[in-house]
Structure formats: C-alpha cells, structure tokens
Amino acid sequence: MNNLKVYPYTSLARVSNVQLMICLLAVWILGSCAHTEKYSYDFQNPELSPESRSIDLVSHMTLQEKVGQMRYDAPAIPRLGLHRYNWWNECLHGVGRAGESTVFPQAIGMGATWNVDLIHKMGVAVSDEARAKHHRFVKENKRGIYQGLTFWTPNINIFRDPRWGRGQETYGEDPFLTGELGVAYIKGLQGDDDHYLKLVATAKHFAVHSGPEKSRHEDNYISTPRDLNETYLPAFEKAVKDAKVHSVMCAYNRTNDLACCGSNVLLDSILRKEWGFDGYVVSDCWAINDFYFPDRHGVSKTGPEASVLAVKSGTDLNCGNTYDPNLSEAVLSRLIDESEVDQALTRLMAARFKLGMFDDPELVPWSKIPYEVVRSKEHQELAKQVARESIVLLKNDNNLLPLSSALKSVAVIGPNANAVEPLLGNYHGTSVEYNTPFKAISDRLPNATVKYAKGCNITKEWPLLAPVPSQNLRSGTDEGLKGMYFNNDKWSGAPVMERIDDQIDFIWVNRPFEMKSDTFTVRWTGQILPDGSGKYRIGLRACNAGKLYLNDELVLDFEDDHHPRMKYHDTTLEAGKAVSVRIDYYNFHADPQVQLLWSELEQDLLTPALELVQNADVTVLCLGLSPDIEGEEMPVVMEGFDKGDRSDIVLPSSQKMLLKEVLKTGKPVVLVLLNGSALAVNYAADKAQAIVEAWYPGEFGGVALAEILFGDVNPSGKLPVTFYKSVDDLPDFKSYDMKDRTYKYFTGEPLFPFGHGLSYSSFKYADMTYDDNERPAITLTIENSSETAGLETVQVYLSTPDMAGSAKRTLVAFQKEYFEPGQSREVTIRIPEENLKIIDDKGRRVAPDGRIFLSVGGKQPGFSGIADSPNTQTLMKQIIVN
User: What is the pTM of this model?
Assistant: First the structure.
C-alpha cells in the first residue's frame, strides 16, 4: 500500500497521453465485455428506451422477417429470441374469447351509466384479468390469438343510426359522452406506470364508420368538414391527446374517396401531425384486401400496390394476409423503400417493449397480478354495479315500480326472459354463471311462485333453441350420449376418457381432462328420441369447430377461430322414433364450449304464457333483440334484419303480438327490453305501465334488473341514444350527413330522448350561476326532495340559436352525483373551454355569434309526456363567452 501512487485531481495533466489512452481503452473493454456477457444485443437491455431497442431489434431482421412481424399473427424468430405473437385480442366489455373472465354489460350499457369513474374502474379490472390471463398463457407456452396484451378496444364510433348492428359496441350517439367514457376506459386498460404499459388499447374504427355492415367493404362515405370535426373525429382526438391511446384501428370503408387504411389525410395529416399520435395503426381485418379485390374499393390493382399504399399512408400492422408476402415483393420491386418498412415495424416493436414482453417479469409490475383476480368477488361486484347503473327506467306510470317483495306470484315471460345470449352482446367473455331475469327474480322471491314461459320466439324465423334434454337422448339403455374424449385433433387412438354425458351443454372453463395444450376432440354418439311429432330445428353451437350427423348424414359442418358459432338444420321428427346422432367436436383455442340444441317449430307458445299472466300478480315481460341476429356482418336476412343490421326499428312481429296479448289482460305488466340498439316500442309506450331498458347487461344483468324492479337499487341510467318512433324518421342509412340525426339535429319528436331516464327519487334544481374567470363552470343547488337515496346525472347543454347550421343543443358537460334522502347541496360542474365553441362549415372551432344558452338538469329541456322525466328539472341561462 505504501508504494501506491495517488495522483491528485490537479496533477492528472501530468499523466502521459499514452497512459491515459491505455486506461480509457481498458475501461471501455471491461465495460464492453460486461455488456456482452449480459446482453447479446442492445435491444435486450431494459435500460435503453423502447424506441432505441426497437430500432436495434429491427436492424437485425431480414426483409422477410420484418414483413412477417407486420402480420397480426407474427411468427417466431428463434435466432433473435422472439416468440410468435398474435396481436389480435378483445376486451370490449371484459376479456373476450379467451376463456373465463368477468362479463360486464355491453358497451352501449356502459354508455348508459354516464359514469366516468365507474368505467375507469371497469377498465382497471378488465386489464387486471387480461394481464393475469396472459401470463398464465405464457407460462403454459400458449401464444395464440386472444392470449396477448394488445387489445382492439374500445369502439368509439358514433352510433348515428339505430339500424347499425354494431352500435351495441359503442357508447352511444354523442361525441363528448363517447370521448369521456372512451378516455376513462383506455386509461384503465393501459395503466398508470411511467415505464410499462399494462395493455395496449386500440381506438377503432378510424374514421366515419357506422354501417351498413353488408356494404362496408366497398362503401365511400362523404363527410363535410363540419360533420367530420364535430361528430366523427372528436372522440378519437380525445383518445389520442387525453388518454395517450397507443393504437388506432383504421376502418374498412372509404372516407371522402380515400380508403381509411390508405388515407394519408386520416393517418398522417390528422392523426400524427395534427394530434401528435406516436403509437401504431392496425388495419381492420382483411381491410387491405378491399383495396384491390374485385367490386371493392378499387384503389389498387394488386396486393403489392395495396401493401405499399397502406404502409406509406401509415398502416403499420396488417390484420389479414396482404402484407406477407406482397410487401417483400414491393420492396424488391422498388415500389417502396425498406426504410419505410423499418419505420412501421419500429413502431410495432416499440409497443411490445413498452409492454415489457422482452424483459425479466420481475421488472414489469403488471406481471405480478395473480390469476385469482379473474372473476374475483370484487370484479363480480363491479360487474353488478355497472349493470345497475346502466339500466334505464323509461316509463313508470302510477309508480308501478318498485314492486313489492310481498308479491305471491310473478310471471316472467318472453324470449329474453331466460336466455343467455341477451345477457352477453357480442365480443364477450365466458362466465361460469349467467343470471337471467327469470333466475334472478326467482332467487329474489324465494317465497313466491315465479314461473316462466317463452311466449314467442325472437322472430318467426329465429326460434330460441334450448339444450336437448337428457330424457330425449339415448345411448343404449342410458339417457344421454356416449362421449369419447381425445387429446389430439383427429379423434384418433384410444380416448383418454369415455363417459355418458346426459346433455351436450358444456362451457369448459376447466378442461374435461388434464392436457398440455388447448387442442382436443370429442365424439358423441347415440340417438335423439322426440316426445312429439313435427318440424324441429336442431342446432349445434360450438367453439371452435363441429360436425353433426343425423342418421349418418352430415348435416352441419363449421369452424370458427373467434367465437362460438351456431348452425342449425330443420327436419321432421316422429314421436318416439329414434334418430341416430353423432357429434364431432374439435377445440383448438382457449374457450372450449359446445351445445346440442333444438326447438319444435310449430309449438303454441302464446297460450301457456297467457295462462301464467292471468294467474300472476305481476308480469315481467322480457322482449327485445339478440346478438345472434344484430351484430357484425352476419348472414342473417329476415323480417327486420339485414346481414347484421336492422331494416326496421320496431319489435319483430312475433314479439309485438305477444306484447299486445299480454297487455290486453289488464294485469300489471313491466316491459323489460334487452337489446343493443334503440327500439320503436310505441304501443308499449302508450299502453304499458312501466318500461325498463336493460341493454345486454352482462352475466349479472338479471341480478341488477331484479334489484331495480324490487327497489333494492334506485335506477340511474340515462339513454346514450335517441329512441325514434319509426324508421321513416331516419335519413338514408348510407348518408353520413348529420342532418336529422341524433338529438343534436333531429327535428322530429322522439319516443324517448337522449339523456332520458327516470328515478325513484325526485330532484329539484335552483340558484344556477355561471363563472368563467378561471375555467368555465356552472354552480347550482340540487335537492333530493324524495325519501329515496339516488344518483342524479347532471347534464349541461349548449345552444346557439343564432348560428346557422349549428346543432339544436350540444352536450358540453355532465357529472353523476349521489344524494341522500332530503339532501340539498351545491354542485359545481366544470365545462371544457373548447366545448363553448362550435364547429363552422370549414371545420374550424370558433366562438359562437349571437345568443348563447346553457341548460342544466337531469334531462334535455323542452319535452313533454312520456318523453319527459317528472323526477328531475332543468334550468337555463344565457351566457357571454369571453
């Protein structure tokens, strides 16, 4: 130690340049060696930025590898340590298509809550389940579709026309309400960590997209600058600027002559340059094929040209099969430079780095979420609360509701009274518990007689099918069918299990036997023995694939990657005469389920239903629609329905007949609607004492409904859409001009207006003041003048009657407040400053000229009769905007 020379800082200059260079070189070599030992590539270093890591990763890929990673089903690159990854995942109202999850109300019901905080909590819960499920999948080496972290949610299109079948996926017809709820859900999904995203959310479908479904692959929608910037773009702008959404999905259609996934106006000028979006863009599925397929958009001639147009315009990820191999060919043909491919892929890889996919799980806080959160008690209770707040009381003459718990008998009638599908909507998850209205009311009244009858089918052409009962199935002398279970995809070798299944009605949250993969097959054999003779519809519902043989004839054969699909076969059966049956079921994803269903087609459903009504104290009549016949691009064409959309907005004739016959009895009737879009229930609005809108309310929808019917919960939902009286009130479906659309521009009389919803409480408004010194705000006093605690949604609307072309009124703020019985207190509602401006003909946000009015209340002003709510009030004030 005594021989060690210590050079003071001031003497460093005395060290020779050679000595200094040697020291620095040694330090660099040692550091480089340490770095090399720890990381083979720079992109593996979690201390670098996601963008730097992404650039490095892409630099090590071949052209073909790059193009492969721009597919939604990206293959593995073992030499770089990349596992295969499927970008396609869904969580519209709970984790979808991935097995067990909490099933929340459909998005339109989320919109009816008008509760930003509640929807944020829901987003947190859904992303908890998504993370937990993903890490379980990875641990089991499952990396397929619906098992990832990039979710194609939410749908923030504007529900401008009630005929659109996918309107159920949206938050309604108002851009501001949609934007606020969309931001809340996105923030809940993406998390609040400074370094790692919890999930990637995707705002879709960008832009000007809301039907018709059957022509979405070839339609060109023209939107004026005013409509574009007032109606179709604001929710997306909020998602980008306020929620920092990390992904946007471009739509199928053309907008103003440009294919949305090939529109430099939408994807570059507006999305990236004007709004500052720094995430990635994914095409809607197979949308880029529409660029060049016959009788579609015709904007490209070939696959390579279509790929070039999409990438150059800003579409980074292809859900479909156009990019690979066409994009490689385009680069080699010099239609596009490889650097442009690199730019798109760098955005994609940056997202995966931000999700922590390449890092030690210990570094990623979201990886520690336990699997026990999936359908936890807390999440189930949250699903109930969202359902409670989504239900809208439309009419309540003579305070028929709430019903007495002392009722002796209740008839629960209708095609939606005891069916699972109307709880779910589309893009749903899988539960182990479904609470239909009949089940929940029966549970709520254990000492009463509660009976159910179907009454009618959803439509004449769409009977409600039920599982074939065990007494109508035979395998030798046993009731049921013989099942042979195989742990392969060929029904081959010795089965791992054989048994008699009394019914074919399975949702396997837990697999039927221990297995290492999701792939298994089952073959059921036996006979069907009908009790009565007549025409029957026999259906097979399965996820993922099924074949049905009757008397050795193959009558059904289908496969679906995405969700349970139902196919049916109509046949004539004779009482007691056996028909041999064989079912070949094949599962290859994470959501195995299969059902053998049937219905006799010429049954008298009405008479037994009316008998129950006559003998009951009260009837709960459950009508509406079904996600089996309204939704995304369906083959269904029948009375009132057209390939996913609706051609009329009234109830189907079968239900209208049941409704009229039930109301004719003169007994007390509560009409409950379960549906994804507005219904023109004019007859019921005139004749029924009470009407409740329940939407597609999720797995606990029946529980929430029963709580509201019997007064355990005070209804607080408000309509997020206008209920019109007739399809004749609507403009042409394909016209995207907002004239005479939605509450903002509709000049007719609605059946029930946007924002409408009754309560068991009564609210009084007084002392309204407006202040814009710091931030525009309204302050007023609200009193709950009733003896019932309740939630009140305070709505603020702007009107500018002197401005030509402006809306009748526009929602500019809202706030949901809780009041105890008799409570009176001051409430302040902030108004975003930009909401006090309007969009002019050139699409600019400008200060309005002339008079400016603000109305505040629990409803829109100016309605009467059943379109008005007697439980709340409105106040109006003329203001000056500085």
Answer: 0.95
